[in-house]
Amino acid sequence: MTSEIKKEAARDAARLLSEVWSRPVPVDPAFVARAIGLRVREVKLDDDTLGALVKRPNQEALIMLNESDPPNRKRFTCAHEIGHYRRRSGDEHEYTTVDLRSKLSAAGTDDEEIYANEFAACLLMPAEEVKRMDKVGLDDFDLAIRFGVSRDAMQFRLKNLDLRK
Amino acid sequence: MSGANGGEEVAPSEAAVVEIADAGGGREIDKLPAPLQNLPQKDHAQDIRLKRIYALALLVGLGVQVAIVDAAFVAYAWAGVNWNVSEPVMGIWLGATVVNVIGVVLVVTNYLFPQRSATGAWLG
Questions:
Q1: pTM, rounded to two decimals
Q2: Distances from the Cα of A144 to the Cαs of A106, A124, B40, B74, in angstroms?
Q3: Best of B5, B17, B22, B117 to mutate (most A CBs within 10 Å, chain A)
């Protein structure tokens, strides 16, 4: 079940990238969000809140990012919220999704979060690009810089793609 | 990590987030660039600058060395032996000059066309 969700997320992220992103990496998630009609705003949020997706009826959905988070964290959160939005595409109802730092560990068991996390990883670190750069011989630190993600996120992605043990 | 549809009771952080969204606070952004995305280019530019300095220093050093060797040879040939330079001395001088030039050519060629192993690792 989990792997199906991940496959779906990977497919959706790849499709979105092919539709709106024609430049080389690093992918800019705010640009991608704008391209599909989402607004992105940096706001002052409490320390535990990473970001949120707020959808009001007949309004563009809004991604909110914690302004005090470091740039790479904001990029990943933004991509994660795009994942939530894509998962609910077609849902015109009002909804709110809030991502909390304290609930990160629980994200591995929630389908919605599994999808959003995988979507974010695939959006910021497209598999083909990661494989191509890994083949050149770049280490995980270099790769993380080039993809604009944290080293942890890069290492996790490399493991998921079976490029590292 | 939590989601709620409108009308349902929302968790405190959700209520706060919705309130902030409705208030229109914060700063609208249209790009989120990677913080170190220009680092490889900067690193490359620094590398080129360093190599330029290194190459210039080597060229100047080589020029000075050749000038000293030539001056010494001329001094020896002209003032020392009145241009009756013996065959071994001439051979050594010419040989040393050829080795010098070939050495520089080898270093430059190796830099321009570095060798790589089958796995892609640089061999120098």
A1: 0.70
A2: 24, 10, 12, 60
A3: B17
